[in-house]
Amino acid sequence: MKQVDKKWVDNKMRMLSSRLGIFKMNPLEFYFEPDKEIYKRLSSGEEKDLQYVSLKIASHLGITYIPTVRYDWGLKMGPEVAGQAKITNISREIRIPFFYVGKKYALGSILAHEITHTFLIPKGIILNDINENEMFTDLSTVFLGLGKLFLNGLVNETKQHSSIEYRLGYLSVDLVTYCYKKVIEYRSISDTIAMRNLLPEIKKMIRNV
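Now predict its structure.
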């Protein structure tokens, strides 16, 4: 696998731009906003609310076939994975380990990643290396306007130790925030719009890029 660094991010963003163009021209329509209603739904523990958020994300991406999302008691995966998308010609299904019930920020990040898979795969935008493709999917969430939902779930502030605990994602948080900043600059998005509905620690990380 090629070295994954800022040059890799730049290259993959150019690739997405050549395949998709400028996704959502209007900067006011670009971001999927994870507002209080979204996180209220994700914290409820109800699958119908999980499905509601899935529908909203799919609508943002213009996905025709809405994924079915459900909690799975028996699904056990590594901490950076936390979800599984099954995509066929006739169905889209996302399964999430029961461990994440009520963990609103983590669930948002998981849904952003898995639904991005359901956007990219039918278009044939897939990298051959499986692990690199997962990192590319993380990057794509930012390119497609799901960066706020994705980034908010990547870190968890451990107040007891005054440190940041990384918990989800394939691409390093440093590179995801770098990608987020590049998108802001490329699309000339105002700071007010770009920082809205982001957690304070995420805002700080982006401003320090």
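The longest strand covers residues 92-97.
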